[in-house]
Amino acid sequence: MTSQGAPSLRDLYNNPSSSWSFVPVVDNNGNGASSSSTSASPAEASSYQWSSRNSLYDISSGIDIEPSSLNVSIAVRGAAMSALLVFFSTAVEIPWEVGKTLLQVQYVPREAHAVEEPEEVTEEEPPSEDELSADNDDAYFADEDGSSSRVNTPRPTDDRGYVIRQSVSDSSTRASYVIPLGTANGVWAMIKQVARWKPEGWLGLWKGLATTCLHNILLSKTQPVVRSILAAFFGPSNARSFSRPHVLSDFILSPFSLIRTRLIVQTSAVQHRRYTGPFDAFNQILHMYFHPQLFFPTILDSATHVLAESMGPRIAARLFSRLLGFGPNSHIAEDTHPFLWALAQLTSSCACLLITVPVDTVRRRLQAQTRGSAAPIATCVETRRRPYVGVVDCIYSILVEERSDLPLRPKKRRGHERKASRTGKERADAAETEISEPTSWLRNTGIGQLYRGLGMRIGANVILFLLTLFVPTEDADDGWTEL
């Protein structure tokens, strides 16, 4: 029996045709061309028209990818989402701005002292009969004319009969809407103080929110314009190394800073409030912006930020290169040493705060004062009654007149020390105890008043440094952000 193998398929193989075949298009009358079983020639394939509809997805294949007109609904929706994002981010930031601004403008003279806290109620032993008889004898033979506590000395008054306030520590003449002096030494402490103070409350932490939102929106719109102008004059690379674009944009929008400062500083009490909103404040104090004592600090503040942010990282990078032993031809750059460059930015940013924070403090104090024909405002914190003449006078007055040991701790006295029937020996011992109380050197200098909010800004720079390490950003040339 002979076995026969399977037939070979080699003879049945044909080379595939390189030409295309198409399905004929059916016209409107329902007449269709006959399908050709044979492959069409290249000339016929090139002259054939594609079908207007896709048989697989049943969609039109002739869609115009480029829009011919702007979709208004999508543009409005995008603008609304962007505005909401700016609003919520500003709402998180503005309480810290309120606390920092109030700390910067608060006036704390050297002779200021805190109001005594209410004494604690303590149970005391009833006095004996001998002590009662001795107290009665002292009271009987006491000289009433020599007792200063019983003499009502008249207090100076103004033309309208109101008592003139001699000191900011006088709680009897302090307005009910003014926060007590020296109760906060940091931004977080001031935030808590504003929230607890009845005329302000929690809503007082969001004063100037609308102004800040409008400022941030306009800032984002003017950044591309400033960037293009810098690139046209200095070139793209030089424009980026010169300064951050938003610094110059912030100078253009600096009137919003004046409005925001005065809205934050004024009290929230309705009967004493001067401005009802940002537009009302804009109409009343716009002419104040060009006052020399306000315009020059704005230029100084912007120029200080420009120099600090353009030259600071380079100086810090060169210092790190020398400390780490880099060669003369090698230096720290963003593309070669990203971690060291970020560390140099952090170091320079914290070091530049020693210059920029005092300038910002002086600018806020000058903005809180009334200039020109503008009406004075009732502030929610203590401010200097006599206005500053300029930048130099403001710095000198802060260093010479104010104290920095905040908060001012009130002295608690025991019940037997506050009794009116104390003997002379007990009064002398109490006075000696008060005189011998140690005082800090910050009581005799106002240098701490120039650096209110410094810790918060350093913390913000550290957080931003950590974010740049773990969360890469799309645009690395935006620089650092300062609260």
UniProtKB/TrEMBL annotation:
A single cellular component GO annotation: membrane
Region (Disordered): 114-161, 410-435
Chief location of this protein within or outside the cell: membrane
UniProt keyword list: Membrane, Repeat, Transmembrane, Transmembrane helix, Transport
Acidic residues bias spans: 117-146
Gene3D superfamilies: Mitochondrial carrier domain
Source organism, top-level taxon: Eukaryota
Biased composition (Basic and acidic residues): 418-430
Keyword Transmembrane: yes
Family, per entry: Belongs to the mitochondrial carrier (TC 2.A.29) family.
Protein name: Mitochondrial carrier
